[in-house]
């Protein structure tokens, strides 16, 4: 409850700078007279900026204010898009026609804003031909380089070689967010 502002009797300052319900500045008043104005108007006295001297308070219906803020947060969550990781699987024996279908799917996934995880599964003695799997992933990287960046280079995990892709402009956005923090 540290983020909630002080209201009415919770305010401890002796003098406050009061702002009316319409946003107009009323002036510098004692706490008692500011609370009296709030009760006469049927509103709450809400401390807006506690760090200033004198403390700034505003006349408002605090319950309605909290309701509006929760609705804004709810709408922001509804507009937010979840980024998913879509997986496309290959084998060393995957033919060119099947590769073209998987490439088309990868392009579609990237254009939808999702990330793509390309996996080559090795079975049996195929594990000794990891260089062919790496070449297949490099071919995929070359085919996607106009719209995607490599998020993670090819890595062997067990009997699977994995590589991650993300849309080009998405990487710039995430780097800009990291620099601003």
TrEMBL record:
<keyword id="KW-0963">Cytoplasm</keyword>
<dbReference type="Pfam" id="PF00707">
    <property type="entry name" value="IF3_C"/>
</dbReference>
<dbReference type="Pfam" id="PF05198">
    <property type="entry name" value="IF3_N"/>
</dbReference>
<protein>
    <recommendedName>
        <fullName>Translation initiation factor IF-3</fullName>
    </recommendedName>
</protein>
<dbReference type="InterPro" id="IPR001288">
    <property type="entry name" value="Translation_initiation_fac_3"/>
</dbReference>
<dbReference type="InterPro" id="IPR036788">
    <property type="entry name" value="T_IF-3_C_sf"/>
</dbReference>
<feature type="domain" description="Translation initiation factor 3 C-terminal">
    <location>
        <begin position="83"/>
        <end position="167"/>
    </location>
</feature>
<dbReference type="InterPro" id="IPR019814">
    <property type="entry name" value="Translation_initiation_fac_3_N"/>
</dbReference>
<keyword id="KW-0648">Protein biosynthesis</keyword>
<comment type="similarity">
    <text>Belongs to the IF-3 family.</text>
</comment>
<comment type="subunit">
    <text>Monomer.</text>
</comment>
<keyword id="KW-0396">Initiation factor</keyword>
<comment type="function">
    <text>IF-3 binds to the 30S ribosomal subunit and shifts the equilibrium between 70S ribosomes and their 50S and 30S subunits in favor of the free subunits, thus enhancing the availability of 30S subunits on which protein synthesis initiation begins.</text>
</comment>
<dbReference type="GO" id="GO:0003743">
    <property type="term" value="F:translation initiation factor activity"/>
</dbReference>
<dbReference type="InterPro" id="IPR036787">
    <property type="entry name" value="T_IF-3_N_sf"/>
</dbReference>
<dbReference type="InterPro" id="IPR019815">
    <property type="entry name" value="Translation_initiation_fac_3_C"/>
</dbReference>
<feature type="domain" description="Translation initiation factor 3 N-terminal">
    <location>
        <begin position="7"/>
        <end position="76"/>
    </location>
</feature>
